[in-house]
């Protein structure tokens, strides 16, 4: 169908009617429009970080950290060791990353959970997280990294604890942060007789439904070798039971259930 302008031109004997100029950009033109750089024309002010690529900014962070000592101690009555905690690690990295314009942001968190028990039979929950991190430089470019964390908690803090562990792992491993401890290769240790594993330390593995019947037989053998089959422990329902009888009972239950 012709337009009103074309019909008027035909009545006047004219055929060359110019098309009206469009004042709107077509979708095709919009697709090919150049992307605006958000940092274009930016000039750092007093105290702002230098606008360098993220890999160089992260290298400067590593250069300034130097090292973090194992200044905290863990002692649960069974084992004792020194470690570098989350707070000490974050306190070391926070001011340095700020000075160099580096942000460390969780981009994706994948978590898994399972119910378990402590060595004393208390119900608890295990959380394991895999976090994808974005290390963002002052210019907005990104380094993508991953780390994992694991935590046990009897309340609702397991996920937060696991994420804190994953952050510590990222900063220490991604920053290649030394402890300042002596190299263990510089000393020689005379290996003596292996220490005997306590009966109660087997409880979590025995109660874990994924432990195979073959592994349960191996646990029974190890307990027999260390003469601990008669040791009394708190079983999965909170009753006292000889650990050797507990292993045999659970093994029969799983074998009968087709596991």
Tell me the layout of helices and strands.
Blueprint: H1 4-11, H2 27-31, H3 54-65, E1 72-75, E2 80-83, H4 86-99, E3 103-117, E4 123-136, E5 142-153, H5 158-174, H6 203-207, H7 213-225, E6 232-234, E7 240-242, H8 243-256
Antiparallel strand pairs: 1-2, 3-4, 4-5, 6-7
Helix pairs in contact: 3-4, 4-5, 7-8
Shape: flat
**Major sheet: size, sense and barrel closure?**
3 strands, antiparallel
CATH class (first level) name of the domain at 54-174:
Alpha Beta
* Element pattern in H and E: HHHEEHEEEHHHEEH
What quaternary form is this? single chain
* The CATH topology of the domain at 54-174: Enolase-like, domain 1
Number of helices: 8
- Low-confidence parts, pLDDT < 50 over ≥5 residues? none
Structural class: alpha+beta
- Strand order in space, largest sheet: 3-4-5
User: What is the alpha-carbon Rg in Å?
Assistant: 33 Å
What is the number of E strands? 7
Distance between the termini: 78 Å
CATH architecture title of the domain at 54-174 = 2-Layer Sandwich
The percentage helix is: 25-40%
| Average pLDDT number | 83
Could you write a compact summary of the structure shown?
The chain is 34% helix and 21% strand. By secondary structure, the protein is of the alpha+beta class.
Structure description:
By secondary structure, this protein is an alpha+beta fold. Among the domains are: 121 residues, Enolase-like, domain 1, CATH 3.30.390; 58 residues, no CATH class. It is built from 8 helices and 7 strands, in the order αααββαβββαααββα. Strands 3-4-5 form a 3-stranded antiparallel sheet. A hairpin with a 4-residue loop joins strand 1 and strand 2. Helix 4 packs across helix 5 and helix 7 runs antiparallel to helix 8. The model has no long low-confidence stretch (mean pLDDT 83).
